[in-house]
Amino acid sequence: MKHLSRFLVASLLIMVIGSVNAQDKNNPWAISVGANAIDTYPVGDRARQAGTNLEIRGGVFEEFYNVNDHWNILPSVSYINISRYVGDGFVVGVTGTLNRIDKLGDSSPTNELQHYAVDGAVSYSLKEVIGSTWFDPYLSVGAGYTWLDSELTGGTPGFGTANGGAGVRFWLSENFNIGLQSLYKHVFEEETGPKHFQHSASLGFSFGGKDTDGDGIYDKDDACPEVAGIPEFDGCPDSDGDGIQDSKDACPTVAGSAEFEGCPDTDGDGIPDPKDACPTVAGVAALGGCPDADSDGIKDSDDGCPNEAGPRANNGCPYQDKDGDGVLDKDDDCPDVAGTVANNGCPEVSVEVLNDLNVQFKSVLFDYNAASVRAESHATLDNVAKIMKEYPTTRFLIEGHTDDRGRDAYNLNLSNERAASVKNYLTSHGIDASRLESKGFGESQPIASNKTAAGRQENRRVQLSILK
Fold first, then answer.
1. pLDDT at position 182, please?
2. How far apart are CA 187 and CA 195, in angstroms?
3. Which residue among 264, 281, 306 closes a domain?
4. Which residues of 301-354 form beta strands (DSSP E)?
5. 250 lies in a domain?
6. For the chain, what is the mean pLDDT?
7. pLDDT tens, position by position, 369-407
């Protein structure tokens, strides 16, 4: 138990030293355990035990593999090493060993010595130099401190050593290896302790590595080593937690569904928000995801009548028939006045209306032997103009007639002038000139006998007829 406790102290020391550097994420770590053997014979400076022929030291490397006669082996786990890779083939490590010395060359000490050592070393791997992936030879140099303890003497002072050696690791997998090593430990003052070789065989396990983004996944296994991620995506992030890694997520900062490549569909209309012009209101694909309540093909925001279907030409509103004549306002030449379909929504002058107008024209008077309309007839013509406005598409012919008194040429000219005078009055009172024509017929179309004063009075007239 005494020996074991000292070995545990040495092991704890190694682990403490190792933990000092454990936070260096740039270096993979390894731990090895095994057994060691100590041989004090093949170190040079041949010497015999005083008063005997027993050699305690031989020539350098003499009987190097004389295991039975010279090697001191403790049949238990007696070797532990912790190391880390620092780059370019170099490894630093700390080793703790214990052993029992019962052979000093060909001699045996009068009492067994307990051996304890802690050694530090820098080794250089030749694996990459020789281009191997499993055969890993290396060289090492370092220093250490050794203690020898005797049941009789109560121990001797510890002594330092300068170490140099060579070894090889056989990598069975990426993380496991079998190691063999021979280490020469040189003591500068022989009275403090013996020079010796220490051989070891171990099983090693490598672990740790660089984790640049601190996500717990080493860079060599991290598909996104510069950005913290999760194991499910080999170290790549899923920022919005929707189960789609950011590199494959069209909306990496907003949770969505795989159906829409990681984007959401807030309004549930089957159109992902980035492609939805109205992402918070359910709509139709044809309108970029915006609603069309009346299904007229115009999105509600652009529809003057969003709840009534209508053509785009009328801003989405249905065409009206304000006058109720059966002709839509868009096709109605008289949208404010009820008319007939045959007359494009405008009213047609009936026989009764035309007769009424002509009755009123009978009261239109002119100055004697002149074309000017007398003032007392203005009210009649104003009323005629008002009625004409009710039939905005009807064209009228204003006819001038005389009796047979006077020369024919004079009468024809006078009838022309009187018809034109009526036309001018009506156009000056709001009737479009394109709707009116005037013509004089003189005495050629009497409607009564010119032999009586009453007949001649009827023949001197202005009357209307319809122009097609």
1. 97
2. 5
3. 264
4. none
5. yes
6. 88
7. 889 999 999 999 999 999 999 898 899 999 999 999 989
Query: Alpha-carbon distance 464 to 380, whole Å?
Result: 14
- CATH code for the domain of 364: 3.30.1330.60
Predicted TM-score (pTM) of this structure: 0.51
Q: Note whether 197 and 255 are same-domain residues.
A: no
Q: Measuring CA to CA, which residue among 445, 434, 360 is closest to residue 402? A: 445
Q: 232 and 181 share a domain?
A: no
State whether 124 and 165 are in the same domain.
yes
Cα 306–Cα 307–Cα 310 angle in degrees, nearest 5: 70
C-alpha to C-alpha distance for 314 and 298, rounded to whole angstroms: 11
Residues 196 and 237 in one domain: no
104 plus 27 within the same structural domain: yes
Is position 63 within any domain?
Answer: yes
What tokens does 443 get? Answer: 């005495």
Q: What is the residue whose two structure tokens read 């009075």?
A: 457
Q: What is the total count of domains within the chain? A: 3
- What does the alpha-carbon distance between residue 135 and residue 172 come to, in Å, rounded to a whole number? 9
Q: In what order do the strands lie in the sheet with 461-467?
A: 436-440, 395-401, 461-467
* Same-domain check for residues 362 and 415: yes
Contact 269, 262 (CB under 8 A): no
Q: What is the pLDDT of residues 15-58, one digit of tens each?
A: 433 333 322 344 488 999 999 999 999 999 898 888 788 998 99
Alpha carbons 328 and 74: distance in angstroms, whole number = 114
Query: Residue 276: inside a domain, yes or no?
Result: no
* DSSP code per residue over 92-107: EEEEEEEEEE--BTTB
CA distances for 205 relative to 29, 35, 83, 172, 208, angstroms:
8, 16, 10, 10, 10
Domain interval for residue 412 = 351-467
219 and 190, same structural domain?
no
pLDDT > 80? residue 234: yes
Note whether 441 and 400 are within 8 A (CB).
yes
| Burial classification of residue 64, based on how many CB atoms lie within 10 Å of its CB (0-12 exposed, 13-18 middle, 19 or more buried) | middle
Q: How far apart are CA 245 and CA 234, in angstroms?
A: 10
